[in-house]
Every structure is written in structure tokens, then in C-alpha cells.
Specification:
Layout lengths: L1 E5 L2 E2 L12 H11 L5 E5 L5 E3 L1 E2 H12 L5 E5 L4 E3 H12 L4 E5 L13 H4 L9 H22 L1
Parallel strand pairs: 1-6, 2-5, 3-8
Antiparallel strand pairs: 4-7
């Protein structure tokens, strides 16, 4: 039996509204909906550290795991750790807008996690998509969804 445990999956075609979306999608939505020169709220002080892994990389990780002889739980995720503020800045850059951050009270979870990926790395797998590239693709898709939603209203 093999169990793949993902580290913060994100990408286009995912949940992007409704309160169940992950941080990258929520930030993309907030930035897409904000006016150029506007402000978006971000929970906490922005210093929490996370790793976000692009969905295509996770799919490759699952495939690699399933073709292997490894058994049990295997953590799958990249090695590019960023603060929440760095994630927000990456989204803002992808948007081409000037957006300010307002830190507000809200759930932030633990400051950082220790998530060993040595087992999946032992199979030669590594995430290939940088946060900048993955967020660029994700933002473009969510921006299109926001525009379609606004036009339908």
C-alpha cells in the first residue's frame, strides 16, 4: 500500500472561492478582484512559512510513487519555502497591479512545518515548477474566472 501526502497543492482548475480554497487561490482571487492601487486583507502578520507545490508536479510525484516499490506514507512537495507575504508579492507581480497588504486577525496555523520528502526524493522525483511560474498560470486562470463571474452579475 502506498499513501501520498501532499504539501499545499495549488494550480488552475481548483477551488478558488467559497471559503474552502487554499491560500494561493484565495490570494489570487483577492488580487484579481482588487482595483489597481487597492488593498487586500491577509490573515496574520505575513511571516508564516509555507511550501506550495504545483498540481502538475504532484501528479508526477504520484506517478513516480506508484511505479516504485516504496510502501506506506510518502510526503510529496517541493523545496521552495516562502513567507505568506512572499506568496502575496508573487501573486501581485503576476497580476501587474499595484496592491497593498493589510494584515488582519485570522487563522494562520503553525509558523512553519517540518515535512521530510526524503522518501520521494529517493526515487529521483523533485518538483520542477517554480512558485513564480505556477502562480503565473494559476493567477491567469483565476483572473479569467473572476472576470466571467463579474460579467455574469
Amino acid at each position: 500500500m502506498r499513501i501520498a501526502r501532499f504539501e499545499n497543492c495549488y494550480g488552475p482548475e481548483g477551488t478558488w472561492r467559497g471559503g474552502r480554497e487554499k491560500a494561493p487561490a484565495a490570494i489570487c482571487r483577492k488580487v484579481a478582484m482588487a482595483e489597481n492601487g487597492g488593498t487586500i486583507p491577509v490573515w496574520g502578520d505575513g511571516t508564516a512559512i509555507r511550501n506550495y507545490t504545483y498540481v502538475d508536479d504532484l501528479v508526477e510525484g504520484i506517478y513516480t510513487l506508484m511505479q516504485s516499490d516504496l510502501e506506506g506514507a510518502v510526503n510529496i512537495g517541493g523545496e521552495e519555502y516562502v513567507t505568506v507575504d512572499e506568496l502575496v508579492q508573487t501573486v501581485i507581480e503576476a497580476s501587474g497591479k499595484r496592491i497593498e497588504i493589510e494584515h488582519v486577525e485570522g487563522p494562520v496555523g503553525v509558523h512553519s512545518r517540518n515535512f521530510s520528502k526524503e522518501r520521494i526524493k529517493s526515487l529521483g522525483w523533485e518538483a520542477e515548477t517554480s512558485l513564480k511560474d505556477g502562480i503565473g498560470r494559476t493567477y491567469a486562470w483565476i483572473e479569467g474566472q473572476v472576470k466571467a463571474m463579474q460579467e455574469a452579475e
